[in-house]
Amino acid sequence: MSTIKLRQPQSCEADRTSPIGNNVSKPEAEDAVRTLISWLGDDPSREGLLETRGRVTKAFAEWFSGYRQDPAEVLAKTFQEVENYREPVMLRGIRFESCCEHQQFLQLAMA
């Protein structure tokens, strides 16, 4: 059985704009995280949380980086060399990420 290992998608650069191109800036997103930390009863200016806003926005940018990909372009990838293959091709080690839009719950797995 043949195996193909796919490369991992590149994560979003931590810039000042939204990873999906809307008009929410990175500082605005970090302020929202600060608000959530306060809402949860913690002090966002506490030493252990000083860099949390940046880490959370970076994580969300990576988790939702697929919004910047064109599915037609991804699915258009084909292979011309198909002779002498008598078995199915198996893809392994594919990192699978999904987020429940209702609760924003991230699910990570390997397929």
Write the layout of secondary structure elements.
Blueprint: E1 2-4, H1 26-39, H2 52-63, H3 71-75, E2 89-91, E3 95-100, E4 105-110
Parallel strand pairs: 1-2
Antiparallel strand pairs: 3-4
Q: Within the largest sheet, what's the order of strands?
A: 1-2
Number of helices: 3
How much of the sequence is in beta strands?
15-25%
Low-confidence stretches: 5-14
Largest sheet: 2 strands, parallel
Describe the structure.
The chain has 111 residues and is of the alpha+beta class. It has helices at 26-39, 52-63, 71-75, and strands at residues 2-4, 89-91, 95-100, 105-110. The protein has one domain (2-110): GTP Cyclohydrolase I, Chain A, domain 1, CATH 1.10.286. The chain is built from three helices and four strands, in the order βαααβββ. Strands 1-2 form a two-stranded parallel sheet. It has a two-stranded antiparallel ribbon with strand order 3-4. The longest helix has 14 residues, at 26-39. The model is unreliable at 5-14 (pLDDT under 50).
Name its key features.
alpha+beta; 111 residues; GTP Cyclohydrolase I, Chain A, domain 1; 3 helices; two-stranded parallel ribbon
Brief sketch in words of this structure:
This protein has 111 residues and is of the alpha+beta class. It has helices spanning 26-39, 52-63, 71-75, and strands at residues 2-4, 89-91, 95-100, 105-110.
